[in-house]
Amino acid sequence: MRKLTYYVACSLDGFIGDPHGDATSMFAFADEEYVAFMHAEFPETVPTAFREAAGLVGVPARRFDTVVQGMGSYRLALDTGVTSPYAHLREIVATRSLTESPDPNVELVSGDLAARIRELKAEDGPLDIWLCGGAEIAGQLADEVDELIIKSYPQVYGSGMPMFAADFTTRDFTLDVVRVFGNGVVVRTYTRKR
After folding, report:
1. Mean pLDDT over residues 158-178, rounded?
2. Among 42, 35, 37, CA closest to 8
3. Are the C-beta atoms of residues 10 and 164 closer than 8 Å to each other?
4. Quick count: other Cβ atoms within 10 Å of Cβ 154?
5. I need a labelling partner for 158 at 20 to 30 A (CA). Which of 14, 30, 90, 119 fits?
6. What is the CA radius of gyration of the chain?
7. pTM for this predicted structure
8. Which bin fits 162, alpha (ψ -120 to 50), beta or left (φ > 0)?
9. Please, are residues 121 and 1 in contact by the beta-carbon 8 Å criterion?
């Protein structure tokens, strides 16, 4: 069975963006060591438009073959005229505002997102599903998340968009791997206790 992995960047205090969802301040930590790690371990998470500049054209996916994102995350691409930001992956967008997909590679889900994720997890295949963001769909899918890969940046936001916009419920995870970088970024991988 495939896993749903919430692979996400956040501040030290657990915010994935400022109150408007902007996380561009985290880009300042993209030094050579960290970028080399990201490209080696998660090459498929680089948007299609940047894969050539990153030297990733033709580099196969290592972890994920499907990306799931909410309309807020997808809107960032649409606002720049990009209708398939991860054209090298199968794209699922949770939305109630779009009624027709602007791209044949993008599947819109307006109904039961958790049920669609369970269908995707039940498919055969060696690669997993990447929950890209944002907070609202992470909250909707909190019970479906099997793995967390949290890229913690050495910044404190104070307030902003939380990792999960959900009602209070304790969900336990086990720490598997910690990777620390010279720039202060810490990448932690957790597995869901079931």
Report:
1. 95
2. 42
3. no
4. 13
5. 30
6. 16
7. 0.95
8. beta
9. yes
